[in-house]
Amino acid sequence: SDAEQVAKTFSISQRADGFFLERHVKLDPVATSTDGIFISGCCEGPKDIPDTVAQASAAAAKVLSLISKGKITLESAIASVDETRCLGCGRCEEICPFNAPKVVNENGVMVSKVNETLCKGCGTCAVVCPTGAMSVRHFTRQQLTSVVDALTEVQSG
């Protein structure tokens, strides 16, 4: 359906009935799980015209608040790929809830690339990567191991 294609293109979650899912029904009813993507009206379910207009105004206000800043700050803890270790298996692409990694053909070699604007740094891709080629910046295995070692040292000392 068209809604499924829109959801896939913009990484918008859908409910079981096919309507788009808002980030939080009470606290952020026009935002989606993808930053900068807003929804209003009947795409989240049946609504009358006054509710649709109110939601559209809220979505427009959210967009204005974003663009009035002049720049957007992206998450710094995002996935990165060691292309020398990547097999291009596509597990990261299949599992990512934000559709950030994509396997592409680069000079005849299949390799994963991460769209940094979509990545939220959840680390799901790093967990399923069979070669360890995928990691999350600021949360590498070595950094996490160092934190655990420091915590166990404090606990035992």
TrEMBL record:
GO MF term (any one): 4 iron, 4 sulfur cluster binding
Q: Which residues form the 4Fe-4S ferredoxin-type domain?
A: 77-106, 110-139
| Pfam name, any one | Fer4_21
Q: Which Gene3D superfamilies match?
A: 3.30.70.20
> Membrane-spanning regions, if any?
none
Q: Which UniProt keywords apply?
A: 4Fe-4S, Iron, Iron-sulfur, Metal-binding
Q: Which InterPro entries match?
A: 4Fe4S_Fe-S-bd, 4Fe4S_Fe_S_CS, PSI_iron-sulfur_center
Q: What protein name does the entry list?
A: 4Fe-4S ferredoxin-type domain-containing protein
